[in-house]
Write a structure and sequence with these properties.
Elements lengths: L7 E3 L2 E5 L5 H11 L6 H9 L3 E8 L2 E11 L2 E9 L8 H15 L4 E7 L3 H9 L3 E10 L4 E9 L3
InterPro entries: AcTrfase_RimI/Ard1, Acyl_CoA_acyltransferase, GNAT_dom, YpeA/RimI_acetyltransf
GO molecular function: protein-N-terminal-alanine acetyltransferase activity
EC number: 2.3.1.267
Length: 158
């Protein structure tokens, strides 16, 4: 399991807190990964919030993936996860999600929520491996193309 606060190396991948100079690469990966990407302002605003995090995965100093999440009281949210297309299928997303879950657990969350496009079965399978369960859908939540969001939740054992 990936531990919060440490640089993690696997296949020369290091996961660390994002810095301001990582933002351009994060935006580039976001645009390559999603048809309706977050704006630079959205990422910048999340980075400024005291109860949120943006972690980046780097290989050879290059940002190859990221995870953004946050929490309110005992409820955590994984807001965005993406990996550069050239670095997919290397378990980088799993490393990021594992670290995100541990961070939210450390912050006292009892639940973690996320949304995933209904057609994104590989991501849904990955989340299921971490114990996330489908709890509902948001009809027509996504645009370009219009698609439902599958709402998933992880409940930590008390």
């Amino acid at each position: 399991m990936v531990r919060e606060g440490l640089n993690q190396t696997w296949q020369d991948i290091i996961i660390e807190d994002s810095a301001a100079d990582d933002l351009a690469a994060v935006i580039e990966i976001e645009r390559m990964s999603f048809s309706t990407p977050w704006s630079e302002t959205s990422f910048f605003n999340e980075m400024k919030k005291p109860k949120s995090f943006l972690k980046v995965a780097k290989k050879g100093g290059k940002v190859v993936g990221y995870i953004c999440g946050g929490w309110i009281i005992d409820e955590g949210h994984i807001l965005d996860v993406a990996v550069h297309p050239e670095y997919r299928r290397l378990s980088i997303a799993s490393m990021l999600v594992s670290l995100g879950i541990e961070r939210l657990r450390k912050e006292g969350c009892r639940f973690v929520f996320l949304e995933v496009r209904s057609a994104n079965e590989p991501a849904a399978r990955m989340y299921s491996k971490f114990g996330f369960e489908i709890i509902g859908t948001r009809k027509d939540y996504y645009t370009s193309p219009v698609e439902d969001a599958v709402i998933m939740m992880l409940k930590f054992a008390v």
